[in-house]
Amino acid sequence: MANWVPLWLHRLGSPPVFYRFAGAVRPWALGLALVLGAVALYGGLFVAPADYQQGDAYRIIFIHVPSAWMSLFIYGAMALAAFIGLVWRIKLAETVAMESAPVGAAFTLITLATGSLWGKPMWGTWWTWDARLTSELVLLFIYLGVIGLYHAFEDRRQGARAASFLVLIGAVNVPIVHFSVNWWNTLHQGSTIRLLGPSHIDASMVWPLLTMMAATKCYYVSSLFARVRADLVASESGKGWVRDLALGDEAKDPTA
Amino acid sequence: MTDLAMGHYGLYVWSSLAIFVLVLLIDTLGPLARRRRNLRELRARLARQENRRRPGTAQSP
Amino acid sequence: MTPGHLGAACAALLRRDLTLAWRRRGDVAMPVLYALIVGTLFPFAIGPEPALLARIASGVVFVTVLLSILLSLDTLFRGDIEDGSMEQLMLAPQPLALLVGMKILAHWITSALPLIVVAPVLASMLHFPTGTLPVLVLALVLATPLLSLLGAVLVALAGGAKRSGMLLALMLLPLCVPVVIFAAGAVSAAQQGLPWIAPMAWLGAGLALAVVLGPLACAAALRIALDS
Questions:
Q1: Sign (positive/negative) of CA torsion C37, C42, C47, C52?
Q2: Chain A closest-CA separation from residue C111 CA (Å)
Q3: Model pTM?
Q4: By the 8 A CB rule, do C11 and C2 touch?
Q5: How far apart, in whole angstroms, are the C-alpha atoms of residue A229 and residue A139?
Q6: Which of A111-120, A122-131, A152-161, C105-114 has the lowest mean pLDDT?
Q7: Torsion of CA B13, B14, B19, B21, to 10 degrees
């Protein structure tokens, strides 16, 4: 009875099926992300009360923290896809892993930039060697290394496999980096100013945060699907279904 | 309801939002353009192949 | 030992790599010279005050050693990939991980060992306290094989790529952050008279893990990179 689940997953692994599936899901995911994001921003920037310590500057949290969560979540998703791609040699999983990297790098960049913008009024400096900020910077370098390695190969498939392996090495390394940076931080700085200290968070601050988290998840799905579609069109260009697609689009879309 | 100035921190809050929107906008538009470009290139290649097979019959627009 | 024996194969490979390195002694000397030159530039850049130099000496030594190893890593597998002996190693009946481990060992002997020898000289030039030199050397002895192993995996991954100079630095940097933190942390703790056993123990634990997993990962990476 539950046999249709693996069957469906197996069919989804075929590029033309996934292409159509992604094309159908993508607009809905993007729309949901926009609606949820707008609601969360309205709730976070206008409805939630100002923090008694940080005033209105804390509102950056509604962008910064969901982005930080996504930077780690996307790495996890990428590592899972890379593992599946390497072990079972599924081409689509490799594509998913490789196309996740730029989205993850974008969220990591947003996290660093907004963290810096938050640090300036709160800590009085754009950058501090805080454990979490430093780990996030290292994460950005790992993302960039994966993207760089992928593009350094002439053969895309081979590049994807090598970069997938790097993703897995990085997955082992990220916790070690975080641990060592924490250790280093306590050695060099007596105490760090905590942005989210023991101060309890009001419920009116929690729901925009969670909504924004859902919005960024939906955004990831939409961006990933758009990227995989673009990649499939290029990598499968010799196949009949892409040829039909190219010729069919011409009839539909005379401007192209 | 809070005002748009966000106390004295409006610059920081709004520029954070601007970075967020800008980076994700680039991230959204890039792949869409890439897919369209890939399809266009493929169409051009198919047209060239068609031309070579039957010279003179198919005119590129 | 019979010719096809595992130990014989490993010894032969090690001897071959060391002989090759000996034939090109000039190339082996380059990383050492590079480290000395980079280390010498620091006093010019920040001023010759002994207290300031002593404070940053361990950091300078570790970063220059890291950069020198990075410089020498680029050629670790390139010659073998270009002349086809890497394919021979892959087809050999002996496990590839072990053979690759021998190559990494040869690389460590030819490029990291000279750096360890020259590091106390460099550190002394930067007014590093003489009493703490053994800790510095111990930290280097534990940290450089780790860097060689990590770097070898990444060089293997980039083996099939067309351009890999800056890419290697970009990939190695995030992975070697813990090594630099613990090695330099142990030395600066010793410099301040604090206990330095804990970071050194972490470094040793990392090395033990890397000695086991590094060659395996390196062999897997080589198979991926050259699988065409």
A1: negative
A2: 24
A3: 0.88
A4: no
A5: 26
A6: A122-131
A7: 120
